[in-house]
Structures
1.
Amino acid sequence: MRKPLVMGNWKLNGTKESVTALVNALVEPANNAANVEVAVCAPAIFIGLVEQLANGSALQYGSEDCDVHNSGAFTGENSPVMIKEFGCKYAIVGHSERRAYHNETNEVVAAKFQAAQNADLVPVLCIGESLEQFEAGQTADVCKTQLKAVIDLCGIESFEKAVIAYEPIWAIGTGKTATPEIAQNVHSQIRAYLASFNADVAAKVQILYGGSCNAKTAPELFKQPDIDGGLVGGASLKPADFSAIIEAAK
Ligand code: PGA
């Protein structure tokens, strides 16, 4: 059975004070959620602080991105090895905001996925279509193309140690959550596509839903058979809301 995973994505938000308050508030809900994995992905500059505060608790954490290189002349980047050194379990790769604002192609995202795994991080591969692609009925094709780039570079078995997050771009930060039916339909197509390469890997991989996942929408989403939890942006910044989402995953 797949264990649900509820992961916060803080994006470019937080202060030392708010991060301290948030992590302190989440340690107990994470410790009390024995059948749910709970994680937060923080801006790189706060990861050391999260490490200190979450130390010894069940709260896992990760980065919101990682570079493809481990070291070198790449000003401003954060390497997977450095991220690992600060105790991270996860690294998000291919978030639609990185794809849109930093021109990350499927090939770059696949290279980041590989670099994260090489550093013993669990990549959280974000995939999903734009509104235009959704309206044109291209959702499944877009997701398959994004997955295929990783399969080509890393092999299907790489998904044994990875998480997938389906995030329709039109649902991110818009308050327009995909309906449980739409999301389940896409998740099952993602799983079927992976199964066409390796059924065992497909059955085991956690596929999270992201895009205006909040305390209200999470319960019905998480009841769907192929939705294994959520990647939560805005609602992960509020301890009460994020705790309610963890509850919904139990
Ligand atoms: P949202 O963001 O929950 O604020 O829509 C989700 C994400 O971008 O991961």
2.
Amino acid sequence: MSKKYDLVIVGGGPGGYVAALHAAKNGQKVALIEADHLGGTCLNRGCIPSKTLLRHTEIIESIQEAKEWGIETGELRLSLDKMRKRKDDVINKLRSGIAFLMKQDKVDVFNGLGIIESSNAVKVVGQDSEELLEAGKIIIATGSTPVVPPIPGLDSVSFETSDSIFDIKEIPESIAIIGGGVIGVEFATIFASLNSRVTIIEMADRLAPLEDVEASKLLEKTLKKKGIKILTSTKVERFEKAGEKVATVCTDKKGKEVVVESSTLIVSVGRKPNLSATSKLNLEMAGPFIKVNNKMETSIPNVYAVGDVVGGFQLAHVASAEGIVAANNASGELDKIDYHVVPRCIYTLPEIASVGLSEADAKAKGLNVRTEKFDHAGNGKSLAAGDTTGFTKIVYDEKLGEIIGVTMVGQHVTEMISEASAFMYLEGTVEEAAKMIHPHPSVVESFYEAAQNIVHKLKKEKKLVR
Ligand code: FAD
């Protein structure tokens, strides 16, 4: 007899496992099916391993900088084995944490490939067994996988993606990274600190093209200072073998051929939905992704989808937020997703963090906005830390002073963005941000200073009468 559940979730990443815990706390009997490891891409080959390695980068850069400050160590020696082991230890600790939470909330975890047979049945295909689960409701949380573009020659050379690069055994002498988006620039930062010669090849005219233009420019300038070669407006035409190396043949913006030879090639040009569970369902799609409404319902009643498989932001915290909405709706509580305030972080050194609309996006939407930028060179904590690269920029509504968006570049900004997000979530104004007492010295005073500058300007223009 098949086992019966109120809710069966396919995929144990941040979308699926958070949904499972939430639904269980709502009193549902829940099964979670995971084909690989709990924690999904984020924990096993995404957010967590990259941030663990970026912490090594931070330490390496600090040691190098400390020399200038009269703090000397011996020769810097790097062990990739030990760094990889620390990364694996962090992953294992978090994996067992999730398994513990599943047990605590009585979620049944099945290890195997989940195949959705119908809107109320899911088959689990294990290594040597198959089992059919009866499902009142289903959540699809199968995530995404790296896109491997059909560029000539790619199938005849060896290359890495974000799925494989974390487990390489030797520090590469040189790396070409195809794609200067969030994932590409984080890898560039990691490997440059390990003394690999890094080249980023990006088709758009700037790195991190979805972020504020000034943030992109500052990132590019700082990465260049670290010795990273950056080729923007450059299109990869083909790959060729060059002895032990790979030759990436490109065309630059003037139509000139550029060849980049590297011992390692990383392809990071985006992610595509993992549809391994859904081939038997006739789901309505939105481009390559599963189409959902704001309750995370798919076109098939009682079947929900969340996370990377539905596209959109493709961020772990968004997958989890969508998971909670789907879990609530599947438990009979009406809930809707709200994408109004979604912080986005890039963990390069300097970090970039943003929330809400950039100046360009706000103007494109016809909003009457102005911006104020505070440079971290004028921030005491940044000076004391010896790291003044960065700024805080507020986009605000000219009439009401409401904060529409914030972009921050610099140290600690991925932590600081939550304050700006809270202001936006509560529809806070620049006047309120300027009034709230901030700790001194702190880098986040830059947000406070920018808000104060806006208030002074608006008062001077008699737009703000107090
Ligand atoms: P996933 O995490 O991909 O999980 C899906 C799970 O479903 C997987 O474990 C998979 O094995 C399982 N699965 C798939 N098909 C089946 C099936 N048929 N049966 C059973 N199981 C199945 N996001 C951030 O917010 N911050 C970051 O710093 C960040 N850094 C990143 C760095 C890298 C290098 C990468 C690649 C991604 C990063 N991301 C980051 C993105 C983040 O990892 C994803 O947005 C997030 O993991 C999506 O969660 P998900 O639950 O939708 O899918």
